[in-house]
TrEMBL record:
<dbReference type="GO" id="GO:0002100">
    <property type="term" value="P:tRNA wobble adenosine to inosine editing"/>
</dbReference>
<keyword id="KW-0378">Hydrolase</keyword>
<feature type="binding site">
    <location>
        <position position="54"/>
    </location>
    <ligand>
        <name>Zn(2+)</name>
    </ligand>
</feature>
<feature type="domain" description="CMP/dCMP-type deaminase">
    <location>
        <begin position="3"/>
        <end position="121"/>
    </location>
</feature>
<dbReference type="GO" id="GO:0008270">
    <property type="term" value="F:zinc ion binding"/>
</dbReference>
<dbReference type="InterPro" id="IPR016193">
    <property type="entry name" value="Cytidine_deaminase-like"/>
</dbReference>
<feature type="binding site">
    <location>
        <position position="84"/>
    </location>
    <ligand>
        <name>Zn(2+)</name>
    </ligand>
</feature>
<comment type="function">
    <text>Catalyzes the deamination of adenosine to inosine at the wobble position 34 of tRNA(Arg2).</text>
</comment>
<dbReference type="InterPro" id="IPR016192">
    <property type="entry name" value="APOBEC/CMP_deaminase_Zn-bd"/>
</dbReference>
<dbReference type="Pfam" id="PF00383">
    <property type="entry name" value="dCMP_cyt_deam_1"/>
</dbReference>
<protein>
    <recommendedName>
        <fullName>tRNA-specific adenosine deaminase</fullName>
        <ecNumber>3.5.4.33</ecNumber>
    </recommendedName>
</protein>
<keyword id="KW-0862">Zinc</keyword>
<keyword id="KW-0479">Metal-binding</keyword>
<dbReference type="InterPro" id="IPR028883">
    <property type="entry name" value="tRNA_aden_deaminase"/>
</dbReference>
<feature type="active site" description="Proton donor">
    <location>
        <position position="56"/>
    </location>
</feature>
<dbReference type="InterPro" id="IPR002125">
    <property type="entry name" value="CMP_dCMP_dom"/>
</dbReference>
<comment type="similarity">
    <text>Belongs to the cytidine and deoxycytidylate deaminase family. ADAT2 subfamily.</text>
</comment>
Length: 169
């Protein structure tokens, strides 16, 4: 089973790389039904100027369209970062059977870290949950992205004079 999870997580990592290539936080997602990838997604928040343009939500929308059904029963969702509250809610509401994620999210994770929305039995649907698949690879991709982003911001600040004007002009 772990070999299967790693295979599909690698596909999610490829989606995350697409996000990084366009300056987005590198988070990728694939949705699988049986042995077929039925949907993919990667972050588009900055590109689309949409707070809801998370990898999971974009993939869920694509999967619903492909299956012509809002119920994604029998589907597995693979995502490189533990889903946030919004995405965990969408996962629960779309009735995804199994959520598999890479890195934990200590600031927003709602699949076991801060809370566990997808397994809260008070809701009408509970998903299976597997975390930590290719965790180090998924986590390092995010860590290096934010490290590079901070370095770029620091360089821009140095290029600006103390009065906020660009000294390179």
């Amino acid at each position: 089973m772990m070999e299967r999870h790693e295979h599909y997580m690698r596909l999610a990592i490829e989606e995350a790389k697409k996000a990084k290539a366009i300056g987005e936080v590198p988070i990728g997602c694939v949705i699988v039904k049986g042995d077929e990838v039925i949907a993919t997604g990667y972050n588009h928040r900055e590109t689309n100027h949409q707070a809801t343009a998370h990898a999971e939500l974009l993939a869920i929308e694509e999967a619903c369209n492909k299956l012509a059904n809002w119920r994604l029963e029998g589907c597995e969702l693979y995502v490189t970062l533990e889903p946030c509250p919004m995405c965990a809610g969408a996962i629960m509401l779309s009735r995804i059977e199994h959520v598999i994620f890479g890195a934990v999210d200590p600031k927003g994770g709602c699949c076991g870290t801060l809370m566990n929305l997808v397994q809260d039995e008070r809701f009408n649907h509970v998903s299976q949950l597997t975390g930590g698949v290719l965790e180090q690879e998924c986590g390092e991709m995010l860590t290096s992205f934010f490290r590079e982003l901070r370095a770029k911001k620091k360089q821009r600040k140095r290029a600006m004079g103390c009065n906020g004007t660009d000294e390179t002009v």
